[in-house]
Amino acid sequence: MGSTSVAESAASAMSFEELVEKHQAMVFSLAYHFLHDRAAAEEVAQDVFLQLYFHLEEMDSPVHIVFWLRKVTANRSIDEARRRHRRAEVGIEAAGDPASPAAADEWVNLRLRRLIASLPERQRMIVILRYQEDLEPVEIAALLEVSVNTVKSQLQRALILLREKAGVEKRA
Amino acid sequence: MDPFEEHLKNALRREEPRAGFAGRVRARITVQEKRTRRASWSSLPRLRWALGILLCVGIVAGVSYRHDQVERARGEAAKQQVYVALRLAGAKMQLAELKVRHLSE
Amino acid sequence: MKRIYAVALVVLTATLAAQGQKIEIPSSWDKLAAKADEVDNVTLDKSMLGLAAKFMKDDNDQDSVQINRLLGKLNGIYVRHLEFKNPGEFTEADVEPVRAQLQGPEWSHVVDVNNKNSKEKVVIYMRTVNGKSGGLVIFAEEPTELTFVQLDGSIDPQDIDALSGNFGIPKDVHTPKANPEKPNGATAEKP
User: Which of C103, B30, B42, C9 shows the shortest CA–CA distance to A53?
Assistant: First the structure.
């Protein structure tokens, strides 16, 4: 992964685009699952890559880039949510009967995503980092700059809350 | 992982942004670079002179850059700490205010 | 000679007023922190506040502008916040040393709320030196939370109140947070 400067060559420019294409799903999904808003998530994701472009020389390795992207996306998403005072409402609207098993899965996913988006910010980001990115508590703690104990307890509380809310909805 | 966690993993699988995302990022970079260049061109003679100095003191510039990185990290961390502090302060003040309202009702 | 002493005293008093008075947190809180589920520690002196303000200027939104104005008034921000899984993790012996430091003539209670039913106590202290505001301490004791916030500098409660609608805290939050073991739909956001 070569470093780039403002007066970069076409070859360097292409490699940054490849970097974007490689990591765009991760960055976009972190923001989207947190904000539950595609437009807001795209804006955050663009901002993150714009920032990466101008900080590329600080990156030591591909691993560092991934860590940096996750950290900055997490922070930007949290800032964006606070700016908008956004907390997704959990709708218990009737979503209609799924027509097929695949549709049923998608229906479950949609409801779970809405439940996740209604969690308090820190719990929400911890859940997303755990289950979207498959990170261990110690990695999440380093990324969010909190203690491992905090991550574990917040994760536990979030799962209790999600199970309960998902269970209540099923009975309804 | 238990079945519920598997459901969570499934619900949180990565998704691609709208097609052309990389192109949109590139477009924003171009706009930002133009803005930077415009600022540079307006003081071109001084810029040439400053660049000459920078070339001569390349090692010092590198050290200074590293210092800026450290300062940026410290500054961002301090900023986050300010947010934590003010959020807690606001929350506990609200709690007190609610209690006062409740007692006066 | 007497005039020199008088001038020196005035200068010293003014200097002391301008300087902060940081409340010391007892070492027993470190042991409490080890038991806590969530710990927030903030120690920002004037230089760190200046650094934070510098990076907040980049954000350019209304909140950051307001915060920057506030930071300009402060000498320091000190926070200790502990959240526990169960009630009863801290005792009077843990909180009394902090309260004792806030009994001096410079400190006065502006809000003192003690709800014996819910066992929640919130006290807000103001520091006044030579008629001028010298800072604010918010000390909240809840069944599973202990919070100490000191904003050292020329600040008044209106400065904080103006910010209470930001950072995800709605201006009219209705209830204290629910017990995390029994969540309900009205759970307030955790910091």
Answer: B30
